Amino acid sequence: MVNCAIDHRLQRRTHVLQHFLIVSLLAILGSAAALAQDIRYISDTQYIPVRSGAGNEFRIIHRGIPSGTRLTVSRESEDGTWAEITTDGGTTGWVRSQYLMSTVPAKTLVDSARTRAEQLAEENASLTAELNQLKEVRGELESSIDSADGTLQAVTEELAQLKQISGRSLELDAENRRLVEDVENLRAQADMLGAENQRLQENLRSSAFIDGALAVLLGVVITLVVPRLWPKRRRNDGWA
Questions:
Q1: Mean pLDDT within 65-88
Q2: How many CB atoms lie under 10 A from the CB of residue 146?
Q3: How far is CA 123 from CA 18, 21, 116, in A?
Q4: Mean of the per-residue pLDDT values for the chain?
Q5: How much is the pLDDT for 173?
Q6: What residues contact residue 72 under an 8 Å CB cut-off, 6+ apart?
Q7: Is residue 31 part of a domain?
Q8: What is the CATH number of the domain that holds 98?
Q9: Cα–Cα distance, 236 to 240 (Å, whole number)
Q10: Which residues contact 99 (CB under 8 A, 6 or more apart)?
Q11: 68: which residues sit within 8 A by CB, 6+ positions away?
Q12: By C-alpha distance, which of 56, 58, 100 is closest to 75?
């Protein structure tokens, strides 16, 4: 982008110089063609009054046309002293022929060329300053690009590390899921063992109850049956 801007500035500068040369060439060619078109100019350092007729007795319709003004001559008086002219602005009248010339006055050309040269010098200085500024900007941009390249490299490396961490995270997630399943299985087994333990405890309590009942029953049997198994002793009556 910076290179395009610099090229644009250089092209603009070249275009300005070409325009100046073309204008100068056209001025020279215009001077040569003025004879055929009867174009005249007010001579140097003159302000020529325009009158309504060919003579000083006619009224002034324009108080003074400056030197270098382009005029079109329509006709001249019989003695050639006066010429009827028309300005580019549309003013028509008579002026003395002695103040007219077929070429652009040298002073006008010099002043125009000097003014144009000053303008070109100013534009050249401005373009040079802009060119230097663009070079500085380009240098800053190149530094920024180098810095951006370094940042990009660092980000790329960090991204690679994140990918590795991400891959490890996936592995850890799968391992975590497996452990969760194992925990659920262990919980199910624990519930089953708890239920079995409760059943065994209930069976144990039932067995103890039965054993107690049997013991009581056995005691009753012993109490009732065993005495009957032993014969009664006859009591000796000493008096019998």
A1: 88
A2: 10
A3: 14, 16, 10
A4: 77
A5: 79
A6: 37, 38, 39, 40, 85, 86, 87
A7: yes
A8: 2.30.30.40
A9: 8
A10: 42, 43, 46, 48
A11: 41, 42, 44, 104, 105, 107, 108
A12: 100
Two tokens at 57?
A: 């007795």
First to last CA, the chain: 156
Q: Which residue has the higher pLDDT, 33 or 195?
A: 195
Assigned domain for 108 exists: yes
3-state SS, one letter per residue, for the chain = CHHHHHHHHHHHHHHHHHHHHHHHHHHHHHHHHHHHHCEEEECCCCEEEEECCCCCCCCEEEEEEECCCEEEEEEECCCCCEEEEEECCCCEEEEEHHHEECCCCHHHHHHHHHHHHHHHHHHHHHHHHHHHHHHHHHHHHHHHHHHHHHHHHHHHHHHHHHHHHHHHHHHHHHHHHHHHHHHHHHHHHHHHHHHHHHHHHHHHHHHHHHHHHHHHHHHHHHHHHHHHHCCCCCCCCCCC
**Does 95 reside within a domain?**
yes
Which pTM value belongs to this model?
0.34
What is the total count of domains within the chain?
1
- 226 vs 215: CA distance, rounded Å: 16
Instruction: Give which of 39, 26, 174 is closest to 112, Cα–Cα.
Output: 26
The residue count of the chain comes to 240
Which one-letter amino acid corresponds to residue 90? G
Whether residue 194 lies inside any domain: the answer is: no
Domain that holds residue 122: 2-130
Q: Which residues contact 108 (CB under 8 A, 6 or more apart)?
A: 41, 44, 67, 68
Q: Which two tokens stand for residue 175?
A: 């391992």
